[in-house]
Amino acid sequence: MIKSISLAPFYSPYDNDKCKPYSDLTIENDISFGEEGEDIVKLMLEKGQLIEVKTERDIWKSTGNMVIEYEFKGEPSGIAHTKADWWFHNFVFEDKLEFTLVFKTEILKQKLRTLWLSGDLKAVKGGDGNNSSMLLVPIKTITKGD
Q1: How far is C-alpha 73 from the chain's CA centre?
Q2: Could you tell me the CA-to-CA distances from 133 to 65, 67, 80, 85 in Å, in that order?
Q3: How confident is the model at residue 14, as a pLDDT?
Q4: Do the Cβ atoms of 111 and 121 come closer than 8 Å?
Q5: What is the mean pLDDT of residues 127-139?
Q6: What pTM did the predictor assign?
Q7: CA quadruple 26, 28, 29, 34: dihedral positive or negative?
Q8: Distances (CA, A) of 92 to 23, 34, 69, 95, 134
């Protein structure tokens, strides 16, 4: 059971066209930008928006990787099967949530395809009876802006 929750800053890699250069920031447009961020989070949680939530336990801290399943017993699963609009990936260490990454699912799939084709991902077997096929995804790589 998770004993405490901390909030991570919201990172929106799919909306960079709305970001203003720091030199153009004023208190008014900074507040407006913050409110747009709040609206994005509200949209994620609205009725009709599907979310998928995955949680990493402890090992990510030493490996620097997140794991994303794509197949179970030879059938599409996880990222390959989800119908979710948003993918939430929690990172827990010693029963405490440290941060959550949030992706628009289609953007995450595009990033994973690009990283796979460039050789930056490793496929592994795991889970119960090694029945799951999963990608080891470097956290620093998947969060890097394009």
Answers
A1: 24
A2: 15, 10, 11, 22
A3: 38
A4: no
A5: 94
A6: 0.76
A7: positive
A8: 36, 27, 18, 6, 19
Q: Any idea how long the chain is?
A: 146
Of 85, 92, 83, 104, whose CA–CA distance to 55 is shortest? 92
Query: Residue by residue, what is the 3-state secondary structure of 39-65?
Result: HHHHHHHCCCCCEEEEEEECHHHHHCE
User: Higher model confidence: residue 9 or residue 23?
Assistant: 23
23: pLDDT confidence band, cut at 50, 70 and 90?
low
- Is 12 in contact with 70 (CB distance < 8 Å)? no
For the beta carbon of residue 47, count every other beta carbon within 10 angstroms. Answer: 4
